[in-house]
Write a structure and sequence with these properties.
By secondary structure, this protein is an alpha+beta fold. It is built from 2 helices and 4 strands; from the N terminus they run αββαββ.
C-alpha cells in the first residue's frame, strides 16, 4: 500500500523489539488516510481513498489485521510526522517462533 499510494517520497520500514513484542512501522509521504477511515481500512472490502484506487478488492489490510489478532497482535494507522501515513503492526515475539522446523527423520 505504501508503494502504491504513498506518493513519490521515500518509504521507511522499521522493525523494533519492545519488551516481549515486535513492532513494524511502514512510513510513507503520501496524502495520508483520513481520520474517519483509519479504523475502517481494516474492515473487509473497505479502502480509504476510493478515487485513487486502480485495482484491488480492499481485503489486504483486513487479512493482516485478522492474522495479527489470531496471534495476539494488532494493526493500526496513524499520521506520519511531516505528512504521510504510518501503518504499524505489533505482535508477541512468541508468534515468530523459534526458527525453522527440524526436518522429519528418515529412519525406517
Amino acid at each position: 500500500n505504501a508503494h502504491r499510494y504513498g506518493g513519490d517520497g521515500p518509504i521507511t520500514v522499521v522493525a523494533e523489539a519492545k519488551d516481549d513484542e515486535v513492532e513494524v512501522r511502514v512510513t510513507d509521504r503520501g496524502p495520508g488516510v483520513p481520520d474517519e477511515a483509519k479504523q475502517e481500512v481494516f474492515e473487509p472490502f473497505i479502502r480509504a481513498r476510493e478515487e485513487h484506487v486502480e485495482r484491488g478488492s480492499g481485503i489486504g489490510l483486513s487479512l493482516v489485521a485478522e492474522f495479527l489478532r489470531l496471534h495476539g497482535g494488532r494493526a493500526w494507522i496513524e499520521d506520519a510526522v511531516g505528512g504521510g501515513t504510518v501503518a504499524a503492526v505489533r505482535f508477541p515475539r512468541q508468534a515468530i517462533g523459534s526458527g525453522p522446523a527440524e526436518p522429519a527423520s528418515q529412519d525406517g
